[in-house]
Amino acid sequence: MEYVSTRGSAPALDFEGVTLAGLASDGGLYVPREWPRFSESEIAALAGLPYAELAVQVMKPFVGDSLTEDRLRDLCQRSYGRFAHAAVTPLVQLDQRQWLLELFHGPTLAFKDVALQLLGRLFEEFLSRSDDHLTIVGATSGDTGSAAIDAVAGRERVDIFMLHPNGRVSDVQRRQMTTVLAPNVHNIAIEGTFDDAQAMVKRMFNDPGMTGRFHIGAVNSINWARLMAQVVYYFAAALQLGAPARKVAFSVPTGNFGDVFAGYVAAQMGLPIERLIVATNVNDILHRALSDGDYSAGTVTPTAAPSMDIQVSSNFERLLFDCGGRDGLALAEQMRSFEASKAMRLTNAQREGAAQLFTSARADAADMAQAMRWAHEECGEVIDPHTAIGLHAARAADLPADIPVVTLATAHPAKFRDAVERATGLRPHLPSRIGDLFQREEAYAELPGDYDAIAAYVAERATPTG
């Protein structure tokens, strides 16, 4: 399996190469040169497999010669053995049509664990083959940071520097990052938004002064290996609901577009997905792009769903590339224009390609609260604000009556206790396995939203490559 950049100029890499590279050297994102395709009979044969074995079979075509099947199986078994539910990503029925796919049974109570538990082991595996040292630099709107830190804390040949917007993540999210006191973990609270933090991370990947001294790697969903691991739970849910004989729709709370793009990949592989519903909060750049072709960034509005408080969705570039004829040089020009002006119109080909599978919906604070109340009062389920935005969109979707709709439940409700309590009157408790979170010591640096300050902080503490 060979991977190419969405901007057409970076060298093609194998799976090991893209896992360690993260962002492509031309500023683009890596995607497979072509999508692997499963037949109906091959998909049907996956039914009933334990999650770790399903992961092996779904990911095997993407891994190529970088790992043997037995080695991939060992990594998957160890990654998913840490989850608190035997099914790893269990399905919960709400009513005759609506379902929740619970993705929060990992160690940090968020869907990011499903991919990052594996990614941490992949880093260790590939770095052990050389004398290299990886400096991971990431940005988080809340959940990626804690999941990535848990996955790599204490691992050899890896340092992690995680940026989060100061005061714009929940207290649980912050503490899950800042109470991990391993020597290779560095938390940075920056003044500004997630978009500011993400822009600094991307700049560091293209800063010769940093990349010449350090091997910079990514854990954000710009890293293909992370996105690949998320494809698996679409197969898991659809198979349980009757695929490939029955189509399934998915509603996905969406910020950086990685989670829902994994669903697009599953569809390209042959999984019969009727619709992917992109659910946004009031930071609705993706809703505007998919409904009107207007990909224009506005000002980020803080909400009770902070992981979706984003105006620039990195992974959207992968969809634009695939739907726009895979013309990397044309997309590079389009993205350069967007990065300069923060405004862009989708081409007709991009809009028409996306419309074949995607629709979108926007939820405001009242919509979000109403969905939380409905789930609690009518179905006996307590959900977090992000999941509620997905559920609002799922219930509003115009779909054939026989199509089940699966909302991705992306975080445990106890990560957003205040918002859940305001909507439902119920204050969810943290699971016992992290129940002492508020007694643990915190450690993090507070820095201005200034690239030079961030780069200097990383350079003082990172291990040079070679």
Structural description of this entry:
- α6 links the parallel β5 and β6.
- This protein has a domain at 91-106 and 224-424: Rossmann fold (3-Layer(aba) Sandwich).
- It has helices at residues 15-21, 40-44, 51-63, 69-80, 112-127, 143-152, 171-178, 194-205, 208-211, 224-240, 258-268, 285-292, 316-323, 328-341, 348-355, 365-379, 385-396, 417-424, 451-461; strands at residues 3-5, 30-32, 91-93, 98-102, 134-139, 158-165, 185-190, 215-217, 248-253, 273-280, 294-296, 343-345, 358-362, 405-409, 445-447.
- α5 packs across α10 (224-240) and α10 crosses α11.
- Strands 3-4-14-9-10-13 form a six-stranded mixed beta sheet, sandwiched between helices. The protein has a five-stranded parallel beta sheet with strand order 8-5-6-7-15, with helices on both faces. The chain has a two-stranded antiparallel ribbon with strand order 1-2.
- The mean pLDDT is 95.
- By secondary structure, the protein is α/β, with parallel strands linked by helices.
Summary of the model, kept short:
With 466 residues, this protein is of the alpha/beta class. Helices cover 43% and strands 15% of the residues. The strands form four sheets. Strands 3-4-14-9-10-13 form a six-stranded mixed beta sheet, sandwiched between helices.
